[in-house]
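Researcher: Next sequence.
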Amino acid sequence: MVYDLLVIGGGPAGLAAACAAWESGLKHILLVERDRELGGILNQCIHNGFGLHHFHEELTGPEYAGRFIEQLSKTGVEVRTDTMVLALTPEREVHMMGAKTGYRVERAKSVILAMGCRERTRGAIGIPGTRPAGIFTAGAAQRYVNMEGFLPGRRVVILGSGDIGLIMARRMTLEGAKVLACVEVMPHPGGLNRNIVQCLNDYEIPLYLSHTVTDIRGRDRVEQVVVSKVDEHRNPIPGTEMVFDCDTLLLSVGLIPENELTRMAGIEMDRRTNGAVVYENLETSIPGVFTCGNVAHVHDLVDYVTAESEEAGRAAARYVLEGGAKGGPVLEVKTGENVSYTVPQHIRPQNVENRCNVFFRVREAGQESEILVESEGTPIARFARDHVAPGEMECIALPKVLLDKAAGSLTVSVRAKGGTAQ
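Model: Next structure:
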């Protein structure tokens, strides 16, 4: 059997993509998830704040996932849990191993990659010191507390101000632990401002910007961590050390899209996002293979993951039912001043119906800013922003009429109002 669509990943991205593809007319869909149940990371995110954009109400992570699992159950999508995908070929053959099915190779007319992301570990950032117990990624600690009923420690220091780390500062506090500090190497927070307020400020947890952990002390268990101020090049400044007596260090130092399958298939990658290079419809360099959610680029909100993944599902359906993309010119989307990456990286104007959303992040925070879009040096669009920050993903909508007039490439820049680069 050849499936119309095979979705790899049963988290929020895969669920939304499968549901959208079914609603768009595909009837032979297989969704594969390596865990024993659907929902992905949402199952351990028991705090609220999900669904404000998509469902227009405040939900917990399991509630948000449950909405889509229920929606999926009303379709004819085939689901295989406890099944690990081992390889994806350019011919859209998917090799997988399942507890019930054994080793299988399934073929599909289209594939959606929705594998999510993983956390950076201590080894990825090279913190000096001994190697005692008590060092966890924030996501691992979250699973211990919320799903396993295990409190990882009593006196906690958190390295990194990503959203998971901020949320775990509050969670550990509510469970009776003492969070001594949150330490961030950058001069600005890495998470959403609302999480800084609700998870740190509300609980009087200090945030040390331009600081990092420079030593871990302890034999069997963490006993102390040393925190130092860093200069503009992120090098520790001697004489600025602070010593915290603690038994636990949580790491919230970034997320890495799970793209081993993507690279194995030979899909073109973007080193800035660590995800695949995509077109306006989230199609990769292999026709019929699409990507969405945190495996494409790291999102702030699951609502944005859902919206993007639904678009990928609809695009896969169009590919199967109507054929591949139309031929014609391709615009390369480039990063200009104060922009670290863009998604998509290429736009085919002839395949855009009304508008094309372009997502990006800034390198530096700023107030009263202007987003400038240029085509070969000629300004074609401007967007005003009261505030921009690296921890908050930006999105602009480019109308088709502007894309049709553009030629060669588009450059997205962010400047202070008045034209001075930030």
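Model: The chain has a mean pLDDT of 95. The chain has three domains: 2-118+256-325, 121-253, 339-416.
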